[in-house]
Amino acid sequence: MSTTIVTPAVHARGLTAGYGGTPAIHELDLEVSSGEIAVLLGANGSGKTTTLLALAGELRPMAGTADVLGCSARTRLDRRARSGLGFLTEGRCVFMELTGWENLKLGRGSAADAVAHFPELEPHLHKKAGLLSGGQQQMLALGRILAAEPRLILADELSLGLAPLIVQRLLTALRGAADRGAAVVLVEQHIRHALAVADKGYVLRRGRIALTGTAEELNADADAIARHYISGES
């Protein structure tokens, strides 16, 4: 009987990366498979965004390995995007002077497919993106990514400054993408909201993995995570 070997979408071992020769993350071991959501938790400055940038190919590792969608650690971001990477960076990933429709047309998928993920956007797409609410802008950016049916989504603080109902809408859309086969690495400060849609999580502290486990295991320790890691207490 033949055995099918499934290669994780993200497979990092001993990953160390940073800026100007100074490491910001140290010896991280991460693995995320197709259909999984892994959430990165931790205080500001703990290394979450640096981890995403290293996985995206924007930062070259100083040490360790990072195989992402079959690309080596030194493969550029644009090549990873062509391999199926969607990267939602921190902030609003939209062109403010373009209309919603024009923003969607810049994606790798169709505008119609993007709207299908967030149909509530359609009445507002004739407006410039800068005139949309923060939640609408984030739905616009995520819809553009989802329309391309990415194999891997990296999402950095997609809920920043948004109302809880919008946060839930966005996280549900990410869960749907994972259920359709995408791997997702999510940076999020809303612990319980993130763990509700995630399969597993990693807690970062001072650039190192301090705790890892399934979403259920981490949710049971959510108060401890908030006290010891998110708040920065020892």
Summary, kept brief:
With 234 residues, the chain is an alpha/beta fold.
Task: Write up this protein.
With 234 residues, this protein is an alpha/beta fold. The chain has a domain at 10-84 and 150-230: Rossmann fold (3-Layer(aba) Sandwich). It has helices at 48-56, 77-82, 100-105, 111-117, 134-147, 164-179, 191-197, 215-220, 222-230, and strands at residues 10-19, 22-32, 37-41, 63-68, 85-88, 152-156, 183-187, 200-205, 208-214. The strands form 2 sheets. It has a 6-stranded mixed sheet, sandwiched between helices. Strands 2-1-4 form a 3-stranded antiparallel sheet, with helices on one face. The termini are far apart.
Major sheet attributes: 6 strands, mixed
Contiguous uncertain segments of 5+ residues = none
Query: What is the CATH first-level class name of one domain?
Result: Alpha Beta
CATH topology of one domain: Rossmann fold
Instruction: Give the % helix.
Output: 25-40%
Distance between the termini: 51 Å
Number of strands: 9
CATH homologous superfamily designation of one domain: P-loop containing nucleotide triphosphate hydrolases
State mean pLDDT (0 to 100 scale): 90
Series of secondary-structure elements, N-terminal to C-terminal: EEEHEHEHHHEHEHEEHH
Rg over CA atoms, rounded to whole Å, is: 17 Å
CATH architecture of one domain: 3-Layer(aba) Sandwich
By secondary-structure content and strand pairing, the structural class works out as: alpha/beta
Q: In what order do the strands lie side by side in the largest sheet? A: 5-6-7-3-8-9
**DSSP strand content:** 25-35%
Number of helices: 9
Looking at the structure, what is the overall shape?
Answer: globular
